[in-house]
Amino acid sequence: MTELPFGSWPSPISAESVAAGGTGLSGVSARSAENGQPELWWLELRPSEGGRAVLVRSVAADPTNDTDRANADALNAPWSARTRVHEYGGGAWWLGREFTYFAHWDDQRLYQFVNDGEPTPLTPEPVGPAAYRYADGQEHPDGGWVVCVRETHSTSDSAAAGHSEPVNEIVGVSVGPVASAEKSDSVIVLASGTDFVSCPRFSPDGRWLSWVRWNHPNMPWGSTELCAAPVFDGRRIGNVRVVAGSKDVALGSAAAAESIHGADWLRDGNLVFSSDRNGYWNLYSWSPESGEVEALTTLQGVEIGSPPWVFGTQRWIELDDSHLVVAMTTNAVDSLGVLDRNNLASGIRGVHTVSERYSSIASLARIDDDRVALVAAGPRSLPSILEVDVSVAGGDEITTRRPPANTGISPEWFSAAQPISFRSPVSADSASPPRTAHAFFYPPTAPGFAGPAGTLPPLLVMGHGGPTSHSGSHLSLKIQYWTSRGIGVVDVNYGGSSGFGRAYRHLLNDSWGIVDVEDCIAAAKSLADQGLASQDKLAIRGGSAGGLTVLLALINSDQFAAGTSLYGVADLTALAAETHKFESRYLDGLIGPYPQRRDIYVDRSPITHADRLSSPLLVLQGLEDEVVPPSQSEAIVAAVAKKGLPHAYVTFEGEQHGFRQAATIIRSLEVELWFYGKVLGFSPADSIDGPDGAVGLN
């Protein structure tokens, strides 16, 4: 065993390998190919191609043998299937019987193509850059048109109608061989009048259309309505029925709120959806004939649902006439199960092989009556596309259709997530009631290396973005980058995180910047008190909403020796005035209505209390970020510069909210390691050039 200072261990997990393993997999779907075998499709977000979103098609060459498959890109450069609806996107593509549909990143128009053919536009050319944006669609069962979400930005029509913000609607779009984007009726509005809409879905016979809607200031994980309406000839819908949910519930009345999402139709004509009416997202079924809603699951401590930050977050799929396959979340860890609709009392049968090996499950798709496809990642495996046989008689067999990125790194270098719970807040002066908070702890791990006897490792506290989301326990090379160098990591699911039920998710109501900060401080203190981290070498990092947590933790505590804010929030009043439509009223619930409670926004903004910052700070920012604009980072950098604190500010051209380009991922990680080495007193084994303009860190 070689003893080296913590933080200076040589590691095979380079910033380049993190970027190479950062290919995002999502949106798996399936349909029958011309040879009769099912073909699988999925989306790959590739940092190596500048963050291009590439559709991949997998099809069996032999119609009698489904095991030998070839995977090939269905969209060549420069095509990129990525939408800007809600800025966060998702649901940028979908399969029809013959055509594949997608929104192209550059112009946001909707296109169609057949297999490897050239895409043709279905929607009019925008009157301004990305003025018409499309997402979350489905082809009508009879073909001829699709339904989807359209978001309209800054057009003369919207201005004339008195709209001061983008308009979100459900629209029908003509498709097929004779479709023309130039026809006056190529796009017609089906449902409008609310601030937001999502999840438009047809019943199997095409006679019903369902969708989810909500209004400011609610968010889709707070209060939404599920609607359904009959569909008539010529793309018309009839009287709208409200199936479930809550409308315009006053903020603070959480008990009356209901969040509906992930709604879709079964082959028998019933509509299934996730609702958190009993405190956890469970499945319910609605019959158009009787108008009755039936509970399919009544789980406690388990959720079949997740905050729909992006489109396409359905957590169940119909397998056959009797069974549903569901992805369940328990304390931020996923598992796969099968629900027998004919015997609900038997509960959900766990698919153990998958659930034991994988802790993150997403993007379910039915292949046939026995098999589903999904995206999965585990504690020791990056995301992959799996085919799983979940038949009741046949057990569960797994076939890998798209293997995880080949890192070339032995698993012995990986630090396994250890779930921990701890009491928070730690200060007796806090106004917050005592609670149990949760996190995943990753101790330093590297074969053949140890820290000097009598020393403790640094600890990096991570706070996730959102803030209404959660961190899972699956393999993250960004975490292993630190642990393999001798730096412990604690990934905190602070109060307000999802995956623990509605009551825990609502802990941030009126308390963003308080509860999350208290829980991050408590996590660090708990591990330091147990002798698992050096009390003098605690650092904290976070992006977006997590950046606000970082800055306030540095302001309100002397516990941290350093902090890194990635495109983080520094001025809440500016955020309320500048951010995009989807989140423009998010802060009403997290802080209070604006501008009525502007005093709270000012008091809770890091920029207001920048004079209390005393620790070195690193700020990383994408220059095309429209969610948290660069002005936020520039404000806090100016404040720390005025105070004379050691700091560095690094910006990246061409990056939006979150870093997607390989060069950015590499440089940002290396600069951050360099920064911690300077502040925490270790010399990285890596040779890294410091950033230009760093102050007090050389």
Provide structural commentary.
This protein is α+β, with helices and mostly antiparallel strands and 698 residues long. Among the domains are: 315-402; 411-680, Alpha/Beta hydrolase fold, catalytic domain (Rossmann fold, 3-Layer(aba) Sandwich). It is built from twelve helices and 39 strands. The strands form nine sheets. An eight-stranded mixed β-sheet has the order 31-32-35-34-36-37-38-39, with helices on both faces. Helix 6 (515-529) packs across helix 7 (545-556). The model has no long low-confidence stretch (mean pLDDT 93).
Which CATH top level class of the domain at 411-680 fits? Answer: Alpha Beta
Question: Cα-atom Rg, whole angstroms?
Answer: 25 Å
Q: Could you say which overall geometry the principal axes of the C-alpha atoms support? A: globular
Helix content: 10-25%
The largest beta-sheet arranges its strands as 31-32-35-34-36-37-38-39
CATH homologous superfamily name of the domain at 411-680? Alpha/Beta hydrolase fold, catalytic domain
What is CATH's topology name of the domain at 411-680?
Rossmann fold
Structural class: alpha+beta
Give the overall pLDDT as a whole number: 93
Which residues form runs of ≥5 with pLDDT under 50?
none
CATH architecture of the domain at 411-680: 3-Layer(aba) Sandwich
